[in-house]
């Protein structure tokens, strides 16, 4: 029987989170977009209500719920057009601590991650190393009970807000092949030698802070090593399946949102005495988008079930991340066109959604990288 996230306890949770979004986030989101920030208080409110890291074990403050509850949160944020990066924190970064951290590390950090008192980020990208993680230049040299970390990271989501940053670095720069020298260090706010660069101005996601992170002789306690030295690249690869699935989930939700309000707009907006949807060309465009969105939904739902079952679906998730994010961008283009001049106005949601959806083809690995992965998985 197919998983139905709109029934039973899932529906109760979805309805509760939807109300939370409508009460605590939606009324303020446009203001946060203008200010270029998300207040810490909303993270803490989300934590108080159980909407951060719901899958974390009860002994660390979570509810021990399944990943399906994270799916609901990601979908509802996208469908409301309020793209706060709770999923980045809950389903991409914190799982590294949960999977590879020592018991002491889990007890130290996980409760704060669940409550919203600790906001997280992961720092992989560098000015000269994006999707090619093996090419990173940030180094960490062991000196007694510390690692001395040096390097610069860029395009880091939650970079300014983050209290914990998982940093990919080279602990063995001479390793052959290079990826075997990569390790993960957890750098805490206030660590000497750790500073934040400028807030980066972006095409979309204006309220989500994205920043440069700078490490200059940053002394990180050796106990902040996550997992084993030299295993960082493997850890990153193991978690990318879920990261890319979350990306596809949010892109799918955005596509569904854009079509819903565009259909309504086309029914009510008239031109030459007829509704916009009354013209065959426009009706066909809406029908084409609706079909592609249904195809995306069916494929995505099947992958969520397989992921929940613990299956390795790297090829299929890479396909979904590529195709669904491209589809969402096609939907954005056509929906804006159907709005005409109004679609270019900030007061209409399609204007912001058009900007925001563009990044989905880039982060979590560009879609060109997705095609490379698919090809390799096919044995090509």
The CATH superfamily of the largest domain is identified as Butyryl-CoA Dehydrogenase, subunit A, domain 3
Query: N- to C-terminal separation?
Result: 35 Å
- Measured on Cα atoms, how large is the radius of gyration? 21 Å
CATH topology of the largest domain: Butyryl-CoA Dehydrogenase, subunit A, domain 3
Domain Acyl-CoA dehydrogenase/oxidase C-terminal: 230-378
Pfam family, one: Acyl-CoA_dh_M
Domain Acyl-CoA oxidase/dehydrogenase middle: 121-218
Family: Belongs to the acyl-CoA dehydrogenase family.
What can you tell me about this protein's structure?
The chain is of the alpha+beta class. It has 3 domains: 8-118, Butyryl-Coa Dehydrogenase, subunit A, domain 1; 121-230, Butyryl-CoA Dehydrogenase, subunit A, domain 2, CATH 2.40.110; 234-377, Butyryl-CoA Dehydrogenase, subunit A, domain 3 (Up-down Bundle). The chain is built from 10 helices and 10 strands. The chain has helices at residues 8-35, 40-48, 67-79, 86-100, 103-115, 232-268, 280-308, 314-339, 349-356, 367-377; strands at residues 120-123, 139-143, 146-157, 164-170, 182-188, 194-199, 210-221, 225-226, 270-271, 274-275. Strands 1-4-5-8 form a 4-stranded mixed sheet, with helices on one face. Strands 2-3-7-6 form a 4-stranded antiparallel sheet, with no helix packed on it. The radius of gyration is 21 Å and the shape is globular. Belongs to the acyl-CoA dehydrogenase family. Residues 121-218 form the Acyl-CoA oxidase/dehydrogenase middle domain.
